[in-house]
Amino acid sequence: EQIEKGGFKHFMLKEIMDQPNAMRNALRGRIYQPVDAAPDVWEIKLGGLEKAKERAVDGRSPLERMAHASRLIIAACGTSWHSALIAKCAFEKLAGVPTEVEYASEFRYRKPLICQSDCLIAISQSGETADTLEAIKMAKQYKALTIGIVNVVGSSIARETDAGMYLHAGPEIGVASTKAFTCQVIAVLLMALRLGKQLGTLSEEMLHTYCAALSAVPDSIEEWLKSLTEQTRVISKYFRLATNALFSGVGIHFPVALEGALKLKEISYIHAEGFPAAEIRHGGITLIRNFVPVICIAMRHDPAYEQTKQVVSDFRAKDAAVVVITDQGNRDFDQVAQFVVQCPETKLELQPLISCVPLQLLSYYIADMRGCSIDQPRNLAKSVTVE
Ligand code: G6P
Question: Which of 104, 128, 228, 280 could form an SS bridge with 132, CB 3.0 to 4.6 Å?
Fold first, then answer.
């Protein structure tokens, strides 16, 4: 087991540090610059959705059927449900396709309205989560197209869906998902960009800009990790005795806040909740008092950035211990936050790939300092295959 951990104390830390490689594998062969094209031209090819001729219905590939679906319904659980929320932002903004996100466990029990022109996308690391599998079977009863975004090759969800994409994240051993999450986000971004191209909602120029930015993300995270581990360790020391923590983020960063809270809960047993920044005023604010950690993602291009800035100063006025995750070079929070983590630059829609990394490391170091069983938290299964 020590050899498998590759010199790291836990699988979770190894998997966090492995993310640049895992992301490169998720991108490989799917996003590329054609050799004979101009230097800034990029292509996206999603073999599992485009090539599946044998799966074509009325001559249309799964990708074409997705593009013209009346809506996309994404069903998932846990961390994968957070990727689904990011997918909704990406599908709607980049491709203009109406998208709904469902907890698979709720979806399957509430007799949802599904029609033949819908497309159900199941996101699952293991490919074995019972509720997600059942959601697919229900969608198939209504003859909807089913697409899987799965890490484990040959898993039940991979076999049950009409077509899909593998994450290629490599085996994830730690119960708390890290590299599978970032690779799920890569997969849904690629899908959104490909659909945007198919539907003409993204200009060629925009597509090339997004592709160039996406392909640069693994290198920038790799470089950043060299200093980020030490910075998050220092912050974790400060927070290790907390009993509650709040995470906030707006727009595409709200799911990242939820994921940050889930990670902390899962492995450190600290109660944590995620909120959209302004929504915290409608309840969560009562939890804020001296030294309660509030971790805010506040990126300059967030549509609600000014509002977020106001919320951050409100937290500080109530003596919360504020950590702000923001863009490179942003000094707006120097006077209000105890800690500012600056993220490498990228486009807004790609930022969840980056902003989630300090949150993973904070959870990891806090849990380690509390002596928790990080790779196998109490009561938690890697994959919930029971109903
Ligand atoms: C369990 C795991 C989580 C995971 C969830 C969904 O709760 O502990 O880490 O996110 O199942 O699993 P899946 O394999 O479907 O992504």
Answer: 104
DSSP 247: E
Q: Which residues line ligand 1 (CB under 6 A)?
A: 77-80, 124-126, 129, 132, 175-177, 380-384
12, 80, 124, 173: residue to mutate for ligand 1 pocket, most atoms within 8 A of CB: 80
Q: Distance between CA 180 and CA 150 in Å, rounded?
A: 9
* Cβ atoms of 283 and 248 closer than 8 Å: no
Name the residue at shortest CA distance from atom 4 of ligand 1.
78
Q: How many CA atoms lie within 13 A of 186 on its CB side?
A: 34
What ipTM score was computed for the predicted complex, to two decimals?
Answer: 0.98
Task: Please list, in sequence order, all residues whose beta carbon lies within 8 angstroms of the beta carbon of residue 73, skipping any fewer than 6 positions away.
Answer: 99, 100, 101, 102, 107, 112, 114, 118, 119, 120, 121, 139, 144
Query: How many Cα atoms are found within 13 Å in the side-chain-facing hemisphere of 210?
Result: 26
* Distance of alpha carbon 202 from alpha carbon 195, whole angstroms: 9
Q: What secondary structure letter does DSSP report for 28? A: T
Residue 15 alpha carbon to ligand 1 centre in Å: 15
Q: Residue 74 in contact with residue 66, Cβ under 8 Å?
A: no
At a CB cut-off of 8 Å and minimum separation 6, what does 68 contact?
Answer: 60, 117
Cα 135 to Cα 151: distance, rounded to the nearest angstrom: 18
Residue pLDDT, tens place only, 146-195: 999 999 999 999 999 999 999 999 999 999 999 999 999 999 999 999 99
Ligand 1 atom with the shortest distance to the CA of 380: 8
Distances (CA, A) of 23 to 138, 168, 253: 32, 8, 19
